[in-house]
Design goal:
With 437 residues, the chain is α/β, with parallel strands linked by helices. 38% of the residues lie in helices and 22% in strands.
């Protein structure tokens, strides 16, 4: 199978491979991920009579459902042989083992695989979002390299600030608490009072708590459980008189901002930075999916790069990120020193056209990934953000992605934000999350 890439010989489009496999399949199969009684999302496919070949693709689908939707149970309906094959493999498959552990950490319950001899019933979750700017609010956005805050009075931004920090490098939870509080206090100084606090944060958010986030990856597990999971609630209670607080995943907030400020709908927000962050918004609502697309396999090659935490081969974080463009630059013969951020800055500074081919390859990565995500989610538009999008290379990337999606016969609008949105959009949109009576 041709990979369509100029440089990356170890790339096989997950979208193309899965589509080709399903086209030759003749055995109907339904794969569902359930989250208690809240969600039962079903992916219908067709497999072949070759059990081992089918297992390869069924496992990819399962990993996608786990990290895209999130839940505590995978249910197979249809061919019993493939279910038995999954049971035989799963306890010796590191990708599945680590994914199960990840879900157990998030949802605090054992993860199970089960078989159903009856048709499955779909159940989706709709979480309406306030979108309300009345009153005096703080909007805060916690990212991997900077934190942004906005003070908003009845929809008007009266203060905003971006501060560089290194949360992924710090093991003391006080560093995170003090940094968040410092930004919020700076914003509060420009308000007469704090009526509400809205938070956009990287990671998986459940019930306004940080269930899992790489921002706190160096913090000991015990401290994460005691101090990090409720960090935003604690700050609101202890420092701001119990002001209402609403916490959402930064990808969801990105998508919501695209819906509110650009008039889009069924919108996937993707931020390509130190990793790949994503979220989804439709009709001013979230769907409750965890959208950890950085862990979803998009390169189906056996030689694909593995996710640093889960070990999942071909995961999005290795391709649609700073690491992705650095890899492609090296394959094109350009080598840079320093941290990821320093190498990215050097690539962007050097790119007077010499690295266009690398950005074109990344655009094809992105186009393939969007097409793959659209197999699982109704996507009409995609908002692209993140430091990888900066400069000439970002323009090349987005054009190539648009062309790639169009060639696949999909009508999906792909666009990026203006500089004002990039600077203020996350924290400003976050301010609208809490609903006031």
């Amino acid at each position: 199978m041709s990979n369509g890439m100029n440089y990356d010989k170890d790339y096989i489009s997950g979208y193309a491979a899965l589509t080709e496999f399903e086209a030759k399949g003749s055995v109907p199969l339904s794969i569902a991920i359930k989250r208690f009684d809240e969600i039962c999302h079903i992916y219908n496919t067709k497999i072949t009579s070759g059990i081992e070949e089918s297992y390869f693709y069924v496992k990819k689908i399962i990993l996608t459902l786990i990290w895209m939707v999130g839940g505590n149970e995978i249910v197979i309906e249809g061919d019993k042989g493939i279910f038995d094959c999954i049971l035989a493999h799963k306890d010796n498959d590191p990708e599945l083992i680590n994914s199960e552990k990840g879900m157990e950490e998030v949802f605090k319950t054992p993860f199970v695989f089960s078989y159903s001899d009856k048709p499955l019933t779909e159940k989706e979750l709709i979480i309406p979002v306030s979108g309300d700017f009345k009153g005096q609010r703080i909007g805060f956005d916690a990212g991997g390299s900077d934190r942004k805050v906005s003070a908003v009075k009845d929809g008007e931004v009266v203060f905003s600030e971006e501060v560089l920090w290194l949360p992924k490098e710090e093991s003391d939870w006080h560093y995170h608490y003090d940094g968040i509080l410092d930004s919020m206090k700076r914003a509060a100084a420009h308000l007469d009072r704090v009526d509400a606090i809205g938070v956009s944060t990287a990671g998986i958010v459940m019930n306004d708590e940080v269930a899992q986030s790489n921002l706190f990856i160096k913090v000991p597990a015990a401290d994460q459980k005691e101090y990090v999971r409720t960090i935003f609630k604690d700050i609101a209670d202890k420092e701001f008189g119990g002001a209402p607080v609403k916490v959402s995943n930064d990808g969801d907030v990105t998508a919501l901002g695209g819906e509110m400020l650009y008039g889009k709908d069924h919108i996937l927000g993707v931020a390509m930075g130190t990793s790949e962050a994503a979220g989804y918004s439709l009709n001013h609502s979230f769907n409750g999916w965890i959208n950890e697309l950085g862990k979803v396999p998009m390169n189906y090659s056996g030689e694909a790069a593995a996710h640093y935490a889960t070990g999942i081969k071909g995961a999005g974080s290795e391709y649609l990120s700073q690491k992705g463009i650095i890899r492609l630059a090296k394959l094109a013969g350009y080598f840079f020193d320093g941290s990821l951020a320093e190498q990215l800055a050097a690539i962007q500074k050097a790119n007077d056209g010499c690295l266009d081919k690398a950005y074109e390859d990344m655009g094809r990565y992105l186009g393939d990934a969007i097409a793959l995500y659209a197999k699982f989610l109704d996507i009409k538009s995609v908002l692209l953000l993140g430091r990888v999008m900066t400069g000439r290379g970002g323009d090349v990337l987005i054009k190539t992605a648009k062309d790639a999606v169009k060639k696949l016969g999909l009508e999906i609008d792909i666009f990026s934000a203006d500089e004002n949105f990039k600077r203020l959009g996350q924290s400003y949109t976050a301010a609208s999350l809490p609903k006031l009576d």
